[in-house]
Amino acid sequence: xxxxxxxxxxxxxxxxxxxxxxxxxxxxxxxxxxxxxxxxxxxxxxxxxxxxxxxxxxxxxxxxxxxxxxxxxxxxxxxxxxxxxxxxxxxxxxxxxxxxxxxxxxxxxxxxxxxxxxxxxxxxxxxxxxxxxxxxxxxxxxxxxxxxxxxxxxxxxxxxxxxxxxxxxxxxxxxxxxxxxxxxxxxxxxxxxxxxxxxxxxxxxxxxxxxxxxxxxxxxxxxxxxxxxxxxxxxxxxxxxxxxxxxxxxxxxxxxxxxxxxxxxxxxxxxxxxxxxxxxxxxxxxxxxxxx
Amino acid sequence: xxxxxxxxxxxxxxxxxxxxxxxxxxxxxxxxxxxxxxxxxxxxxxxxxxxxxxxxxxxxxxxxxxxxxxxxxxxxxxxxxxxxxxxxxxxxxxxxxxxxxxxxxxxxxxxxxxxxxxxxxxxxxxxxxxxxxxxxxxxxxxxxxxxxxxxxxxxxxxxxxxxxxxxxxxxxxxxxxxxxxxxxxxxxxxxxxxxxxxxxxxxxxxxxxxxxxxxxxxxxxxxxxxxxxxxxxxxxxxxxxxxxxxxxxxxxxxxxxxxxxxxxxxxxxxxxxxxxxxxxxxxxxxxxxxxxxxxxxxxxxxxxxxxxxxxxxxxxxxxxxxxxxxxxxxxxxxxxxxxxxxxxxxxxxxxxxxxxxxxxxxxxxxxxxxxxxxxxxxxxxxxxxxxxxx
Amino acid sequence: xxxxxxxxxxxxxxxxxxxxxxxxxxxxxxxxxxxxxxxxxxxxxxxxxxxxxxxxxxxxxxxxxxxxxxxxxxxxxxxxxxxxxxxxxxxxxxxxxxxxxxxxxxxxxxxxxxxxxxxxxxxxxxxxxxxxxxxxxxxxxxxxxxxxxxxxxxxxxxxxxxxxxxxxxxxxxxxxxxxxxxxxxxxxxxxxxxxxxxxxxxxxxxxxxxxxxxxxxxxxxxxxxxxxxxxxxxxxxxxxxxxxxxxxxxxxxxxxxxxxxxxxxxxxxxxxxxxxxxxxxxxxxxxxxxxxxxxxxxxxxxxxxxxxxxxxxxxxxxxxxxxxxxxxxxxxxxxxxxxxxxxxxxxxxx
Lengths: 292, 390, 350
Known about the structure:
By secondary structure, chain A is mainly α. Chain A has twelve helices and no strands. In chain A, helix 3 packs across helix 11 (258-283), helix 7 crosses helix 9 and helix 9 packs antiparallel against helix 11 (258-283).
């Protein structure tokens, strides 16, 4: 038995009143959601917005500065940076959401299977996860792009494969804990079929931590996509992507920093918002995670 | 604070009846602790005053959430004010006002003069440190001794708390010991610097029933031999019946009754105390007595009931109990009271209680009859004949 | 991609299982036998991982379009010349045979030679590995040196100024893509606003220690920032939950000062996730950091691997991937062994 107040009293070393800040939602949280919402909406409705064509060069706007018509100036070919940032959001978000979504679903299911059945299934899945983790991801991506061609779906597939092992591990660890709980033991004792137990009893408890983690992974994959575009391995031009835009402005970084700076800032703010929201959301599951 | 040379632990002295408790060692005056949380103010401890004398064992009894643990930690100074925690009242230990000390000054007293034993020995030992290191740590901190001397002392301590093979134990890790053995280790740690006051917070609750008695007897034995004062916190009245001089019953952060142990058992005045006793199987008597359960739940400490905090669960509650909180009052010397078995020479002790209708009084008999007749207390709790058969 | 994989993406390590609560634990001989069995089982598992990774790399390389023989023989080679090259390189033999051959070579210490330059693979690796190793180790140490004290103090006083400041900075650091950070650093310190550090290139430590240090500062900082941010957050949160433990209260009640409690009682039991993550990151960094190597023109393993893929230089690629996998495996083993040292409760049966 532990007294109700114990929880409030014990963290005395860590100051008793850390709870003061927990209660209210800081303004940054709403700012982050607003930013993220704007980016998503802009990406969704980009073709409907009154934007310049992101692919058409305009030689009067090469290295162009900020003007009333070109809000964020122009790039090395004079294409409108604002328009390209908006269209670039489509690519970034698509890659992030799809790759993580696929990885989370596949990895989540495999992880539950491994964690529930243990034994040989677990060993084989853990082994596969280890193999993928030990294999340099970049080589895999290059191979996929080289074999299947550089395209958005191939990129997504490659990144999804790379994210599977991590989701297997997370989902497996959560399942190991959940499977020890009374309601799962009870379902087992009643003679429920394993797949039913996984679907009805375990999955609802695994979904939240996996989803919270997946959310943060979206931000990570936006950066990964950017890095690949930066190396020239990402979405092929002229389709705009944030990483490609940053890379394109690299040669003129000193004279016209805004060409790289604006897409970099947008990417930074988007990832920052995702991380911030994710961190606050993750706190809700901290108790569960502590048992991992 | 004697050195290891004349260590009272080394050679067990014959157990004798503890002498009469002497001067007040610990005086808690109006101790109050409130936690400001998102949901409101938790009034964990409200205006608790207690006195503990040299060599005395004072039991603090109450359910979960009665504030007894927080009170103990406030007494020691482990709970301090600031950042969402509000504290009030003073705690005087050996003439020093602990509440006025800085944390540095407090930590010189902790472990050396006041020691603490926690409820769950599974969690109160550091899992990655050897037993020996955890005992000598305290000795090396408070005593000017070498490491070798501290280790020697640790072995003696382990032997005195009844652990076999102490030389091997000091090299073991906590997970290699059973729960009972671990609690012996925490007792050894607590006693390592001969404290004058031992705070034992539910020292046996997490243990197997068979081990509980051993640990309690060990504590009683060590307390008597070392002449320590002890604050024994528990939810279990059985535990303290033969092992304390006085008992303070806490409910909703308040003291609701305090009396010498034998007086309390012979003549409980607060219905809550009575209910606690009925919830415990009698020490002597038939084995399969129907135990009574206290109806309802411990009070919400954020929005406690207006009048008597126990009134919603009390079978004798009247209208007055719901609106007016009873003060802590002195009881008339009761004819049922007899001298405490464990401190025969003690001066007549105060018996205080907090109730408008103290058990056994004519007003109580009237209240009881009224509630039985209408089938419920003033708070609406169902009352049956059987429940109030005392 | 190696260097942009999320620092936090490696998944929380399985915490040491709860201690068995029986009577006295296993005695020493039993414990050693147990440890030995554990190590043996891990070794088998990791050896299988090695085999799979190297075989997988054979398959992947084989799948790559473009004929290595054509690449090696040159654009203008005649079909006969290409065929001759193919035979010399034994590319006409089945995949499995080539793999077994290669494996045999590996066991005798022969990793073959580059198709293009004829340089022995071991020699090529020998040039690159120290560079990547230095970057990886220095970056990890920097990240830990910065993150650990900040995390410990933040956990001790959560919500105070230092905690809030470092948390905000950490969020910014973790959201900053390496290639952006690297570019910013180059502009700021190497050519743009000031030129106090070299923008590109790498000098060996044995050639010129000072120039070596100067050449790795910017790359290491680029690598370290996001990791330091994640480490601080991870250790802080583990530390805060450790500080809620009863044994911390017990340590306080002994009269220990906060510094002693934090460093001697709380840090070690809080450090397991951090150690795992840091180890995994170290393993990944040793395998090369393509982005940073590209940005700062550093001849590391990452560059070697990417070039080998584009050049269809199988032997180099095979050898490099073998090293990366070995590094991963060895570091995983070391982490497991470190658990055994740090946490006496770890008695995992595999």
